[in-house]
Design goal:
about 140 residues; two-stranded antiparallel sheet; 5 helices
Length: about 140
Amino acid sequence: MYTRLTEAYTALAKQHKLRVIPSGYAVDLFRKTLGEKLVPVSPADVLTLKEPDLPGTNDPAGNFSWRKNAKTGKTVLRSDYNHLNPRGQYLQSLVWYAFLFGRDPEKSAFVPGNISAEEAALFKKCAAKAVAEFPQAK
């Protein structure tokens, strides 16, 4: 999905002489940097969860929440594997901060409470690298 989206955004940017905010590239860098330490969500494991448990992952994508079905009254786990979770949103905010304001995300003091200092440093490094290295259309 990342590859096809990047190709489409890059083609559109080239056609209209626009720049691309490299949020997807930052996620890709983060995943590659983690390598074997990346803990993806297993859809099979999700089926075994009981409320209030949520999948354990360090992937910046994937949102999960328990919701009551209005028709049945049964509580079900809502799974969204395509969008960024709060950790991924933090990474994305660092990319946008760097891209839009020309500021170094590695110097940002803000770190959400649910992210460790070590992980925040990695997010900041990936955001800075994404903005510096993403090949913008000419």
